[in-house]
Amino acid sequence: MGEGFVASLPSLAIAFFIVLLTWIVARFAVRISDMIVGRTEIRASLKTLIDTLVKLGIWLFGLFVAAIVVMPDLTPSSLLAGLGIGAVAIGFAFQDIFENFLAGVLIMLREKMRIGDVIECEGIAGKVEHITLRETHVRKLSGELTVVPNSILFKNPVEILTDVDERRHEVVVGVSYDTQLDHAAEVIRRAVEDVEDVLASKGIDIFAQEFNSSSVDFLVRWWAGSAPRAGWESRDKVVRAIKAGLDEAGIEIPFPYVTHTFKETVPVSLLGDTRRKTP
Fold it and tell me: What does residue 171 show for φ and ψ, rounded to 5 degrees?
């Protein structure tokens, strides 16, 4: 055993030198990767992933060469076969983790859904605060934090509410049946145009939508900020302005009520006789 150990010292020294050289090359390769990737606009987490993959690839190659030097009987084909079987076993054991990992990589490569966007997916709505390789942190508008696996965001439709700075909002306004509809539409249009938060230059839509139980309903649509709070504020101001405009014009905003109509008059005396004949 002693003679065998002494005989293997040169191989061990060469393997140690290869490992040391691998460490030096890996450090320089990461720096070069940072210089190249740093000129792009990809996310910080994706940059970290690229650095890790570069370092891992160099270390695997260096250790592979060092192992062959120490154990000459080890062939590349046998080592690759062992790694393949191990990779399959690990893949089955950590299927969900790898699924979320790959989904995270693909999400980071997308141009859409950036940090700060307000999204909605599978009943989860909120502001994106952080994106990692396995999960995305979504802060609800009420303050709670939801940790969402990346596979959910990748496999399901995601609605990005703040993809652009403005989006269209809408509200339904009802007027009474005795109202002249063209006049009511003009009053509503003037009221909406005077609201500060409304982007009147992008157009205001007013459509007579349907005959409701006690009103004729208009669908009013306008453009304002895309953030949820901007939408709520503009909706509040639009509703107040429409109410004031209709009141000033003398146009009724009806509430549900029931009208009873008797087509034939029934004498009171007949009703009295009927009550007397009824046992």
Answer: -150, 150
More confident residue, 137 or 115: 137
Cα–Cα dist 90/84, whole Å: 10
Contact 270, 277 (CB under 8 A): no
Q: In this structure, what are the phi and psi dihedrals at residue 81, rounded to the nearest 5 degrees?
A: -65, -45
Structural domain includes residue 65:
yes
**What's the token pair of residue 129?**
């605060």
Position 279 scores a pLDDT of 47
Classify residue 100: in a domain, yes or no. Answer: no
Q: Is residue 254 part of a domain?
A: no
Q: Which residue range is the domain that position 243 belongs to?
A: 166-248
Tell me: do 36 and 66 sit in the same domain. yes
Higher pLDDT, 64 or 247: 247
The reported pTM is 0.60
For residues 176 and 156, membership in a common domain is answered with no
> What 8-state DSSP symbol labels residue 278?
-
The yes-or-no verdict on residue 94 having pLDDT over 70 is no
Mean of all residue pLDDT scores within the chain:
81
For the chain, give the longest Cα–Cα distance: 132
Q: How far is CA 94 from CA 88, 101, 166, 169, 200, in A?
A: 10, 11, 42, 44, 54
Q: In this structure, what CATH number is given to the domain that contains residue 29?
A: 1.10.287
